Structure prediction request, 315 residues.
Amino acid sequence: MNSPVFSSLLPVVLLIAAGYLAGRRQWVGAHAIKDLSNLIFLLLAPALLFRSMSKVHFEQLSFTPVAAYFIGAGIIFVGMLAWLGLNRRAAVLAIASTFSNTVIIGVALVDLAYGPPGLVVLLTLVSLHSLILITSATVLIELMVAREHAASNSAPSQHMLRTVGRALRNSILHPVPLPIIAGLLYAQTGWGLPAVIDKPLLLLGQAFSPVALVLVGITLALTPVGTHLRGAFAMAVVKNVVHPLLVVGTGWLLGVRGLPLTVMVVAAAMPIGANAFLFSQRYKVAEELVTASVVVSTVLALLTLSAAMALAGRF
Prediction:
């Protein structure tokens, strides 16, 4: 593993380890996780994302690397449905096998490893991540629910349309994509951020990475894996290993090279994101397995991310 990879990953590992210690020693209890999560997602993340995108113009964005990421995710998603059957459990496990932790771990790691240019590439993905994956899974599951509980020809469709519309709205009016979109739109004005606003946003943004990574460690310390280790490991391998390999292949076919491909491969190698767990909770399907998969995937990512970063640097 080369020096840039080591120097980028070591702070991440140490901050997660510090959080794990705090959780094990009960310096931070389970009751505080929700408050810390709200602090990160409602204050620190929006400040970082808005400020990062407030200097980016549309011509700097490239969606081809993002397409490579989603094609890889789509192959896994369809493969999971083909393997497990067209049912709610399969859809939940498919979203868990494709949804990366692009914010808490991804933003922190990419910012440390690749700086602002890499962060812009990642945030282009982040702005569409939940919108495409969560909404697609919601549409699929609601179709299954409508089929299972159909009482008439019209009522299920109306219910599904309301749910899908709500999913689309929530995917946009969310503390992650909304500041990205707002910052990008503000950048097009050419006004720049006044120092009196830019400085507080900078300080809040700088707090994001350490607090978010410590929260990952606390969550790991307080989450039991239980009896689902084998299934969780299989899902973690699909997410952490198969997904980035597919992104490498699709990226090369689409002509993506250099930093954009590197960032997409690293994003695909990220562990399973918390939204997958929330999704399983919402539909009350495979909750314990998905929870265990998030934990195993996060631990495994310490190895797979190291490999992905080392290999991606050669593209």
